[in-house]
Structure prediction request, 88 residues.
Amino acid sequence: MASSDGLIQGMIPALPGLRVDVTAPPGTLTEGVPGGGVLVSWVLVADDESTGGARVDPVFLSAGRAWTPDQFRATYGQQLGVQVGRER
Prediction:
C-alpha cells in the first residue's frame, strides 16, 4: 500500500488573534528566511509515524503565501521550527 504521508486530510479555520513565529537553533544562518505570520487555519496531515496516523499542523501567512510547517521547512531548511502564539 502506498504511503499517504504529507497529504492534507482536512482543514478548519483558525480563531483570530493567533500567529506563527519561525524559530531556529542558535548559530543557524537565517538570512533570507522570512519570519512567521498570521495563523489562518489548521490542517489534518497524514503521518504514518504519528499516533492515529495523522497530526494537526498550523497554516500561516509569510512572504506573500500560505505555508504548512512541512512546506516552509522544505523551502528554507529542515532545522527551522514553528511556534504558535498570540498576536502581540
